[in-house]
Design brief:
The complex is a heterodimer of chains A (278) and B (127). Chain A has 278 residues and is of the alpha/beta class. Chain A folds into 2 domains: 93 residues, no CATH class; 150 residues, Rossmann fold. Chain A is built from 8 helices and 11 strands. In chain A, helix 3 packs across helix 8 and helix 5 crosses helix 6. Chain B is of the alpha+beta class. Chain B has one domain. Helices cover 22% and strands 28% of the residues of chain B. The longest helix of chain B has 15 residues. Chain B is globular. The chains are: A alpha/beta (278), B alpha+beta (127). Chains A and B meet through helix 1, strand 1, strand 3, helix 2 and strand 5 of A and helix 1, strand 1, strand 4 and strand 5 of B.
Chain lengths: 278, 127
C-alpha cells in the first residue's frame, strides 16, 4: 500500500508483542499468534509469533513446523478482506496438538464518496460514526466543505488530479454519487481501474449501463472481474426513500459485503455470526 | 478497529507510569456471547471485570499466563456476555515494562528463554 511513515519505530522492535503494539498504534495490518495450550510440554505456553502485512515474521512458537503453519495462516488472513481473530488447532510433527490464538489487527476501513451533494452528507456522517476513514471527493468548493462533512477528509479535485491526489487501496470502499453523468463516468473509469473491492454506483441500472456503453465507445472496456466489484443499483433492499435511509441502505450493503454476510433478516437464521461466504 | 489502538495506547500509558500490567484477551467464544474473539482489555491494577482482575493480579505476581474459561450459562453475568448463554475463554498474560518478559511454561515450572533472536526474523519473502 502506501510507503509513508518510513521512520516508524517498528524497524527497531525485536520482540513480537512490542512489534504488535506498534502496529496497533499505527493502525497497520498484522497478526499476532500466541501459544495457548499444547500437548507437548516442550512448547513454551505464552510464546508469540508476529506477522506484519508488510514485513518479516518475528518470534518463535517453539517448533519450526508450527511456526511455518501459523505464518501461512497469518498470510492467508492478511489477504482476506475482513479476517477474524480466532483460536486454531494445529497438529504437531510428533502427533500432538497445539492451540494457537491468532489475533488480527487491521487498519481502519476507508470509504471514499465521489460527489458532495446533499445525499452524501448523511452517508459521510454515518460512515464516520461506523469508524470508516471517510473521504469526500468533489471539484465544487461550495459543496465539498468541512462544515458540510464534519469528520471526513475533503479532496477538492476534478478528474485530472484524481490520479495523484486520491489514493485507493484494497480496503477502500467507493460510492459514486456525483449526480452528474460525465463526472460519474470519469469516476467509474478511475475507480474500476483501482484496487477498490467495492464500488457502489447510485442511480438506476439503465443509467449505469449507459455510462458503461459510453465508456466502451471511448475504448474503455472493463473485465468481468472489474465489473463484479460494481454494485448498482446500490444498497440493500430496505425500501429506502430519504437520503438518510439511502445512506443506511448503502452502508448496510458495505458492511455485509465487507463481513461476507448475506444481508437479510436474521430471524429464522440458524447462526448469527457465521458468514454466508468468505 | 479503534479499540485495538486504544489498547496499545493504554499499554504505553501504563508502561510510562511504571505500572505492572496484564492483558486479557477473548480467545474463544462458543454460543452467542456479545463480544467476539480478539476483544481485549488492559488490566493495570485497576478496576475491570472483577474476576478477570483477580486472575490478572495473580498473573502479574507470578508472571505466568493463564487461560480461563467462563461458562456464561451459570448465570454468570458480566460485561462480556451480557447474560447471553455461551462459553468464553480468556487469555490473561503478563506484560512487562519493556515488552520482553520471560515466557513461562505453565505445564512445567521451568522458565524458557525469550524467543527473541530465534525464529523467523528475516527469513520470509515479502507478501
Amino acid at each position: 500500500m502506501s510507503g509513508q511513515k518510513e521512520n516508524s519505530s517498528r524497524d527497531l522492535v525485536k520482540e513480537p508483542l512490542a512489534a504488535w503494539t506498534v502496529c496497533l498504534k499505527e493502525e497497520r495490518a498484522a497478526v499476532l499468534s500466541t501459544l495457548l495450550e499444547s500437548s507437548s510440554p516442550a512448547l513454551p505456553v505464552g510464546a508469540r509469533l508476529f506477522v506484519p502485512e508488510d514485513g518479516e515474521p518475528l518470534g518463535d512458537l517453539g517448533d519450526a513446523s508450527l511456526n511455518r503453519l501459523v505464518v501461512e495462516l497469518a498470510r492467508k488472513k492478511l489477504d482476506t478482506l475482513y479476517p477474524k481473530s480466532e483460536t486454531c488447532q494445529f497438529s504437531l510433527p510428533g502427533g500432538g496438538q497445539a492451540q494457537v490464538f491468532v489475533d488480527v489487527n487491521l487498519p481502519p476501513f476507508e470509504l471514499i464518496i465521489f460527489g458532495a451533494g446533499h445525499d452524501a452528507i448523511p452517508l459521510a456522517k454515518f460512515a464516520v460514526q461506523l469508524g470508516f476513514k471517510t473521504t469526500v471527493v468533489d471539484p465544487r468548493p461550495a459543496y465539498a466543505t468541512e462544515e458540510r462533512f464534519p469528520g471526513a477528509r475533503i479532496i477538492l479535485a476534478d478528474v485530472n488530479s484524481w490520479e495523484e491526489r486520491v489514493n485507493i487501496g484494497r480496503r477502500t470502499h467507493v460510492v459514486v454519487m456525483n449526480h452528474h453523468l460525465e463526472r460519474d463516468r470519469a469516476t467509474l473509469r478511475f475507480v474500476l481501474n483501482s484496487p477498490a473491492p467495492y464500488v457502489g454506483v447510485l442511480g438506476p441500472r439503465s443509467r449505469c449501463q449507459r455510462m458503461l456503453e459510453a465508456l466502451e465507445k471511448e475504448g474503455v472496456i472493463f473485465r468481468e472481474e472489474q465489473l463484479a466489484r460494481m454494485y448498482n443499483p446500490v444498497g440493500l433492499d430496505i425500501g429506502a426513500e430519504t437520503s438518510e435511509e439511502v445512506a443506511i441502505s448503502i452502508l448496510s450493503e458495505i458492511l455485509a459485503f465487507r463481513n461476507g454476510h448475506a444481508g437479510g433478516f436474521l430471524r429464522g437464521r440458524e447462526s448469527v455470526h457465521q458468514p454466508a461466504r468468505r | 478497529m479503534r479499540e485495538n489502538r486504544e489498547i496499545a495506547l493504554a499499554m504505553e500509558e501504563a508502561k510510562r507510569a511504571g505500572r505492572k500490567m496484564a492483558l486479557a484477551t477473548v480467545v474463544r467464544v462458543k454460543g452467542s456471547a456479545y463480544r467476539r474473539e480478539g476483544a481485549n482489555g488492559v488490566i493495570s491494577g485497576g478496576c475491570l471485570e472483577p474476576d478477570v482482575t483477580e486472575v490478572a493480579k495473580q498473573v502479574m505476581a507470578d508472571g505466568r499466563p493463564v487461560l480461563k474459561r467462563y461458562d456464561l450459562d451459570e448465570d454468570f453475568v458480566w460485561g462480556l456476555g451480557l447474560g447471553c448463554p455461551g462459553t468464553v475463554d480468556i487469555w490473561i498474560e503478563p506484560v512487562s515494562d519493556d515488552g520482553t518478559e520471560k515466557v513461562t511454561d505453565t505445564s512445567r515450572s521451568s522458565v524458557e528463554e525469550n524467543a527473541e533472536g530465534q525464529g523467523f526474523a528475516g527469513k520470509e519473502g515479502l507478501s
